[in-house]
Design brief:
globular; 418 residues; Rossmann fold; four-stranded antiparallel β-sheet; six-stranded mixed β-sheet; alpha/beta; 2 domains; CBS-domain
Length: 418
C-alpha cells in the first residue's frame, strides 16, 4: 500500500501561478519564469512512498525538496496535480480536514528542534497530544514510551537547555512518535548536528523504523545520509525529480550526467552490498549426497568447492575437491568426515566495507545467506576485487559489461568461469 502519492504535482509562486504551470507544461524553463517574477519550486513531481519505507528526497539548496515536504502536510497548497495521503488528496481538503490529517496521519520533525525552552522534556514531547486534547494520563503514558524509545528515559523533568543538540533532536523525534501517526516527515532533521551525533541519530532512526514500521519521508542535502538511510531515494534538481531508485540503482545506473557527477565521490563500499555483486551458486550439494556424486558435480561445473545444504536448503558447510577425491578413493559413503563447517557466511545486505576484511582473512568464497540461512549467492574474493576495480576505473559511467574470467582464476571459489 502507498502512504503518499504525488502525481504531476507543481508548486509555483508569484502572480498567476496557474499560468506558470501552463508555461512549464509547454516547455518553458525555470529560469525563463524567474525572469518574469514567477518561481517554480516543484515541477511535475510524481512519486510513491510505500507504507513502512524510508523514502529520502535528496537535493541541493533550492532544488525544491523542502517545498515538496511542506505540501505533503498541507503547509503549502499544490498549484496543480494530485498529492494523496492514504488515498485522500491534500489539494481538495478544507482546513478542518487538513488539521485532522496532521493530527491523525502525519507528524513532522523539524531541523531546529522547535522546543519550548521553558517546558520540560516531557512537556515538549507531549505538546502535540496536549493540543489534540488527549487526557493527561494517556498523554503521559504515550510520552514516556516515546522518550524511552529514543533513549531519553529519566530525562522527562529536564529542560531543553540541559540537553545536548542530539538529545534535543531526540525530543523532537519523541514528540512525533508520541503523536502515533503512521507517517513521519523529517525536513533536514539531522543537518544541524555534529557528525558523530548525526550518525547516532541516523542509526536510531533506522532502528526505530524497523521496530515500529513507520513510513518516513526524509529530506536532506547530504548524499551520504541519503544513501545510508533511504530504502529509495528521489534525486531533485531545479524543482524536478530526475531519478528515483535504491542507493545501489542510483550508483550503478545514474539517470544522467548530473546524477553521475553527484555520486562520483560516494564511498561505494559503504553503499553496495553483497547482494549486488554476488554470483549465484552454480550448484549446491545435499547433505545426504555421497562423495562420488559430489565429485561428478564438481567435474561438470569445473569447480573445486561447493556449499553443502540440508533438506531446507540451509547452509551446513562446504566440501573441497581434494577432500572429495580422497573420500572417493577411500570408499567413504557420506560427507561427514570431510565437511568443512567453518564456512564464513554473510547476509545479502552486508556492505562491501564489512566484507573486505572478511575476504582478506579468508581466501575461500563467502556464502551469502538469507535470514533463514538458505544459500542465495557466492562471493569469491576475485568477484569482490573485480567489483571494486570496475568502480575505481570507471566511477561515472555505470558498471562496465561483465567480462569472462578464466577458470584457472576462479578455481576453488565455488563459481563457474562464465
Amino acid at each position: 500500500m502507498n502512504a503518499i502519492v504525488a502525481r504531476e504535482t507543481y508548486k509555483v509562486f508569484g502572480k498567476r501561478p496557474e499560468k506558470g504551470v501552463a508555461r512549464l507544461r509547454g516547455g518553458a524553463t525555470r529560469e525563463e519564469l524567474r525572469k518574469e517574477g514567477i518561481t517554480a519550486a516543484v515541477i511535475d513531481a510524481s512519486f510513491e512512498v510505500r507504507e513502512g519505507e524510508i523514502f529520502v528526497v535528496m537535493g541541493l539548496s533550492g532544488s525544491g525538496k523542502s517545498t515538496l515536504i511542506r505540501m505533503v502536510n498541507g503547509l503549502l497548497e499544490p498549484t496543480a496535480g494530485e498529492l494523496l495521503v492514504y488515498g485522500e488528496d491534500i489539494v481538495t481538503m478544507n482546513q478542518q480536514q487538513l488539521r485532522a490529517t496532521r493530527r491523525e496521519k502525519v507528524s513532522m520533525v523539524f531541523q531546529h528542534f522547535a522546543l519550548f525552552p521553558h517546558r520540560t522534556v516531557g512537556e515538549n514531547a507531549a505538546y502535540g497530544l496536549q493540543i489534540q486534547g488527549i487526557p493527561r494520563d494517556d498523554r503521559e503514558r504515550r510520552t514516556k514510551e516515546a522518550l524511552r524509545l529514543v533513549g531519553l528515559k529519566g530525562w522527562e523533568d529536564s529542560l531543553p537547555g540541559q540537553l545536548s543538540g542530539g538529545m534535543r533532536q531526540r525530543v523532537g523525534l519523541a514528540r512525533a512518535l508520541a503523536a502515533g501517526t503512521n507517517i513521519m516527515l523529517m525536513d533536514e532533521a539531522f543537518s544541524a548536528l555534529d557528525p558523530l551525533i548525526k550518525r547516532e541519530m541516523q542509526d536510531q532512526l533506522v532502528e526505530l523504523q524497523h521496530k515500529l514500521g513507520k513510513t518516513i519521508l526524509f529530506i536532506t542535502h547530504d548524499l551520504n545520509e541519503a544513501m545510508r538511510l533511504g530504502d529509495r531515494i528521489a534525486m531533485m534538481r531545479d524543482g524536478r525529480i530526475v531519478q528515483i531508485g535504491t542507493a545501489e540503482q542510483i550508483l550503478n545506473n545514474p539517470a544522467n550526467d548530473y546524477v553521475a557527477q553527484f555520486v562520483q565521490d560516494v564511498d561505494r563500499t559503504r553503499v553496495l552490498t553483497a547482494g549486488s555483486v554476488m554470483t549465484p551458486p552454480v550448484a549446491l550439494v545435499g547433505s545426504e549426497q555421497g562423495p562420488r556424486s559430489v565429485h561428478k558435480l564438481m567435474r561438470e561445473h569445473q569447480t573445486a568447492r561447493l556449499f553443502v545444504v540440508d533438506r531446507q536448503k540451509k547452509l551446513c558447510g562446504a566440501v573441497d575437491e581434494e577432500a572429495v577425491v580422497a573420500a572417493v578413493r577411500d570408499g567413504m559413503e557420506t560427507l561427514d568426515g570431510i565437511l568443512d563447517r567453518q564456512v564464513v557466511s554473510v547476509s545479502a545486505a552486508s556492505h562491501l566495507s564489512e566484507l573486505l576484511p572478511l575476504s582478506a582473512g579468508n581466501p575461500k568464497a563467502l556464502a551469502v545467506v538469507d535470514d533463514d540461512r538458505r544459500v542465495v549467492g557466492v562471493l569469491a574474493r576475485v568477484t569482490l576485487l573485480q567489483a571494486l576495480g570496475q568502480w575505481a576505473t570507471r566511477p561515472n559511467s555505470g558498471p562496465p559489461p561483465e567480462r569472462e574470467v578464466p577458470a584457472s582464476v576462479l578455481n576453488g571459489t565455488g563459481v563457474s568461469a562464465s
